[in-house]
Amino acid sequence: MRVEAPIKVDRKTKKLAKRLSAGEIAVINHTDIDEVAANSLVECKIKLVINAAPSISGRYPNKGPKILIDNNILIIDNVGEDVFEELKEGQVIEVNNGLIYRNGQLIGQGEVMDKSVVEKKTQIAYENMSVELDRFIDNTIDYAKKEKGFILGETEIPKMATDYKDRHVLVVVRGQDYKEDLATIRSYIEEMKPVLVGVDGGADALLECGYTPDVIVGDMDSVTDEALKKAKEIVVHAYVDGRAPGLKRVQDLGLDAVVFPAPGTSEDIAMLTAYEYGAELIVALGSHSNMIDFLEKGRKGMASTFLVRLKIGAKLIDAKGVNLLYKSKLKMKYIWALVITAIFPVVIIAYLSPTVQQLIKLLQLKMKLNM
Questions:
Q1: The SteA-like C-terminal domain covers which part of the protein (predicted)?
Q2: What is the pLDDT of residues 154-167, one digit of tens each?
Q3: CATH of 2-125, one of 3.50.30.10, 3.30.2290.10, 3.40.50.2300, 3.10.50.40
Q4: Burial level of 116, CB count in 10 A (0-12/13-18/19+)?
Q5: Mean pLDDT across 38-65
Q6: How far apart are CA 220 and CA 200, in angstroms?
Q7: pLDDT tens-digit profile of 103-119?
Q8: Which of 142, 269, 280, 323 is the most buried (most CB within 10 A)?
């Protein structure tokens, strides 16, 4: 396998995906490539991925590498930090069976991750799952004890201009199948006119579907400037001590923002805010709700998410994966039924038409003459 192409380099895959063009090589430093990152690379139609870190560490069965391989994108894996630093954006390199050349000079090598290698490493990760699950549960319990004030009224909810009272609220997160799920519930959005809340990159998903986010919540690391400028209100998720690194970016755009210091994830505070301000129903789309989701986000537990979902209870509907409910094929018998139903009134109207009746009489007369 030989590939020669220009490269683009970034430690954050989601940032790199915004700059990649078809036919290029993506150079990343991403341990355990997650599903969302892999899909973003696939959409760019790249030739190859060079990863400085292990794409499957074996801690848990991450899905990203399989997605890349299934889309005919090979991975040159675990090339190391030195090679990552050596490769500069815009350079043209040659990759041949895991060996990396620049101007004919060998600068490094990595493991070729083809289908068989990915399957083998994923199987090992599944076998290690119990160890990681045990650690994850312990961390979740420990953090739940520390963060229980988050749902017991000890965390102050900031004042907001958005009116949530007695309305449906749709919280869109950049998670698994978020684009497909959003397209599937289009009729719900048109009918109920919910408050549209984009969690970081979820705001861009709303824009792609033709909707303007009412609120953007997040640390502002993966949402575009376009989405920030169009949103009606911005909530910057800050650390518990009040530090809000994402606030500067918003202010540099000349925009105002509400700062919300809180533990947990941005989607947690988005749902908690909607609940505290009297939302009738909260619909979470693309949300992170299981161990794999949280490990892919680099989190060791899901305490805040567990606590928030425990509090908002029956007001929450999780629409994650809803598109899978509508993937059944339309059966031929239903197609014929629709055709017959559509033709039947046309036949009746035609039969009652004087012109058609005259034509039928002429045909009957002709048949009698020929007998």
A1: 320-368
A2: 778 999 999 999 99
A3: 3.50.30.10
A4: exposed
A5: 93
A6: 6
A7: 999 999 999 999 999 99
A8: 269
